[in-house]
Amino acid sequence: MVGVTKPLTPVTSATPPPLPPPPPAELKFEGNPGKNPLGEASFRDMCSRLPSVLARTTRMAWETDRRAVLLLLVCQLLVGAGAAVQLAFTATAMQPVLGSGPAAGRLRAALPALVVIAVAAAVTRVATALSSYADGRITPRLTTGADTALVEAVCRTEAAAYAEPGFADRQEAAEMGVTRSRMMVQDATRFTAALVRMVTAGGVLSVLHPLMFPLLVLAVVPAGAGAVLSARVTYETHYANVGDRTVRQMMRWWSTTPKYSDEVRANGMTGYLLHWYRALSGRIDRRTLTAAPRMLRIVLTSSALGGVFLVGTWATLAWLAVTGRVDLAAAATAVVAVQTSLAALSQLVIHGAAMFHTSLYLADMRSFLDLVQELAPRRGELTAPARVAEIRVDEAVYQYPGKESPAVDHVSLTLRRGEIVAVVGENGSGKSTLTRLITGIYLADKGRVTWDGVDLARADPDTVWARTGLVPQNFAQWPLRARENVTLGQPRTVDDGPVWDALDTVGMRGAIEELPGGLDTLLARELFGGCELSGGQWQRLACSRALYRRPPLLILDEPTSQMDVRGERDVLDALKATAADQITIVVTHQLENTKVADRIVVMRHGRITEQGPYEELAHGGGLFAELLALSKDR
Ligand SMILES: Nc1ncnc2c1ncn2[C@@H]1O[C@H](COP(=O)(O)OP(=O)(O)OP(=O)(O)O)[C@@H](O)[C@H]1O
Question: Which residue spans traverse the membrane (predicted)?
Answer without folding.
Answer: 68-89, 109-128, 191-209, 215-235, 296-322, 328-350
